[in-house]
Write a structure and sequence with these properties.
625 residues; alpha+beta; Heat Shock Protein 90; Ribosomal Protein S5, domain 2; nine-stranded mixed beta sheet; five-stranded mixed beta sheet; elongated; binds adenosine-5'-diphosphate; binds magnesium ion
């Protein structure tokens, strides 16, 4: 009987990837060994976990291990594992497509990134294809742990692969790499051994090279902190995070109550999400008594801590818990709470020890902390301590904490103020900070829209309300120092009667645009500003909501009407009061222009075409047309 052979084309993205792997990434080929060992280890972990829940797994007696055999004559590198194995359809799917939804941009960026640092390829789940960096021909013989028929997958990496039934296989997978002419070293024991030592010392199964175990199997996170060297920690981070960089923070802790926990968490140096690689997968694995229960667990930490790498191990977890039931398991949520609080506390302590180092971390990963602050009530208190913002009293580029702000507050101030703007310069030139400057009250500058969402979500810090300075009902404490100044400028101010009639006229002239017009108690120099009668939403939050509505095709608009505050001391406003009586049409143009200008300063949307046309009309008049 002839064995049934089928031939398949690689998925288009896989072909591109193979092309990159074969043609661009030959400089650091060593990593192919790491990738294959890592897959073998994953397969063994999967088998170990699955076999906990069944009585008679196929080939149950076979020890869990990785074997590497070399043939210097035939120039082959062979790696065998006794893991979970693959069925025909798994071979076809897992080794023919890229699990990661590969788009062209993803591949282009990957190609660029990988040329800089080849260790990146593992992070994108394309590890197996690394075999073609060193091999002309790759054969994968595999038999699933369900005991069904075994198969051989073969390919030269150029465009297609074929799969044939194969008898006499044991459970697991054997991969035979026929080495390229310039890659014959990978059949030499000293070479392979040094690569294993470098990349794979933490694999939790014995790796036997030509029959000899070359790694020491150990769970570093259960060892005593004082016995672990910096180098071991870093090596472990690189192993568990599939990473090429060094971690910036590391927390290794154990607890006995309320739960038995051993955790080892790392914050990496790079944030791949902002580099444009899409949303990160969580990087922390859940273990129970040193057995992997859930790799890249979505349950053990909140989503906004997805940038962390590491291990959480708890002896209290039932070993045979299924991955599906982790999600709503009470023990898991308790574990998540304890570990998350502990990590956030650790970050706060580190920031107190070395603020400069924390700011580096903040610049890279602050966005995740903000994400937590906008979405997670459970850890609000801990998260609010970790936020950093620039302020009117901070140096440019040197953000401060809310605690710093509170320390500097005067005794009669009960509110923390903030204002959003595109940059420090834009905020400082705008109308919102005028009274703060005059009264020497510190104000936080929020330069990202998410900042306003975070602060408004927090609501308060250390018992002090968090309030956006573009709120309509802002109240400043009167202090004597500026009473005098106010008295001095009294003469220059529009009479209250004139101001009232201007307000009445403006309300009518701008009735389509604004909810209300008010004589400002806050403005110092600027003629006018937009404030929000709705105390919860800030202008920048509205802008974001409006943009997302537009993106979803729900059309522009829908923002609530604002209030316009006018400054009775400003010369333009004073002249407008007269103009309104003599030339109402032109006065209306000026009023609309003042409104548009104030909207722009608030970062809100106006109709630019209408505005430009009107502006030319006003200029024409100014030039004596
Ligand atoms: P990743 O390991 O990130 O998923 P790879 O390209 O390294 O990506 O592997 C692709 C898939 O092929 C794996 O997810 C796994 O399902 C399967 N696979 C690879 N090697 C093995 C193996 N030795 N045993 C079982 N399955 C494997
Ligand atoms: Mg892999």
């Amino acid at each position: 009987m002839t064995a049934k052979t089928t031939t398949h084309e690689f998925q288009a993205e896989t072909k591109k990837l193979l092309d990159i792997v074969i043609n661009s990434l030959y400089t650091e080929r060593d990593v192919f060994i790491r990738e294959l060992i890592s897959n073998a280890s994953d397969a063994l972990e999967k088998f170990r976990h699955e076999s906990l829940t069944v009585d008679d797994a196929f080939d149950a007696h076979v020890p869990l291990e990785v074997a590497i055999d070399l043939d210097e004559e035939k120039h082959t590198f062979t790696i065998t594992d006794t893991g979970i194995g693959m069925s025909r359809s798994e071979l076809e799917h897992n080794l023919g497509t890229i699990a990661h939804s590969g788009s062209n941009t993803f591949l282009t960026e990957l190609a660029e990134a990988a040329q800089k640092d080849v260790s990146l390829i593992g992070q994108f789940g394309v590890g197996f294809y690394a075999a073609f960096m060193a091999g002309t021909q790759v054969r994968v013989q595999s038999r699933s742990w369900d005991g069904s028929e075994g198969h051989e997958w073969t390919s030269d990496g150029s465009g297609s692969f074929s799969i044939t039934e194969m008898e006499g296989l044991r459970r697991g997978t054997k991969i035979i790499v026929e080495l390229k002419d310039d890659a014959h070293d990978y059949a030499k024991k000293w070479k392979v051994e040094s690569i294993i030592k470098q990349y794979s010392s933490f694999v939790p199964f014995p790796i036997k090279l030509e029959g000899e175990t070359v790694n020491t199997v150990q769970a570093i996170w259960t060892r005593n902190r004082s016995e672990i060297t910096e180098e071991e920690y870093t090596d472990f981070y690189k192993f568990i995070g599939n990473a090429g960089d060094e971690p910036v923070y590391r927390l290794h802790f154990s607890a006995d109550a309320p739960l038995m926990i051993n955790a080892l968490l790392f914050a990496p140096k790079e944030n791949f999400e902002v580099l444009g690689f899409g949303k990160m997968e969580p990087g922390v694995n859940l273990y129970c008594q040193r057995i992997l229960i859930d790799q890249h667990s979505k349950n053990i930490l909140p989503e906004w801590l997805r940038f962390l790498k590491g291990v959480v191990d708890s002896e209290d977890m039932p070993l045979n818990i299924s991955r599906q039931s982790l999600q709503d398991n009470a023990l898991v949520s308790k574990l998540r709470k304890v570990v998350t609080k502990r990590f956030l506390k650790y970050l706060d302590e580190e920031a107190k020890k070395d603020e400069g180092k924390y700011l580096d971390f903040w610049n890279t990963f602050g966005i995740f902390i903000k994400e937590g602050a906008t979405s997670d009530y459970e850890f609000q208190k801990e998260l609010s301590k970790l936020l950093r913002f620039e302020s009117s009293k901070s140096e440019a580029g040197k953000p401060i904490s809310l605690a710093d702000y509170v320390l500097r507050m005067s005794a009669d101030q009960d509110t923390i103020y903030y204002i959003n703007g595109p940059s420090r310069a834009a905020i400082e030139a705008g109308p919102y900070v005028e009274m703060f400057k005059k009264k020497d009250i510190e104000i936080i500058y929020t330069m990202e829209p998410i900042d306003d969402f975070a602060l408004s979500h927090l609501g308060e810090f250390d018992g002090k309300k968090l309030v956006s300075a573009d709120r309509a009902d802002l109240d400043f404490p009167d202090n004597d120092a500026d009473k005098d100044k106010d008295d001095d400028s009294e003469e220059a101010k529009l009479e209250s009667e004139a101001a009232d009639s201007l307000v009445t006229w403006l309300k009518e002239a701008l009735k389509e645009q604004v909810a209300d017009v008010i004589v400002s108690k806050r403005l110092v120099d600027a003629p006018a500003m937009i404030v929000n009668p709705d105390g919860y939403m800030t202008s920048s939050m509205e802008r974001v909501m409006a943009a997302s509505r537009a993106e979803k095709g729900m059309g522009f608009g829908g923002e609530s009407k604002k209030n316009l505050e006018i400054n009775p001391k400003n010369p333009i406003i004073k002249r407008l009061s007269d103009l309104q009586k003599n030339d109402a049409d032109f006065a209306k143009d000026v009023a609309l222009q003042i409104y548009d200008n104030a909207m722009i300063q608030a970062g809100l949307v106006i109709d630019p075409l209408v505005m430009v046309e009107r502006n030319y009309k006003i200029l024409g008049r100014a030039l004596g047309e």
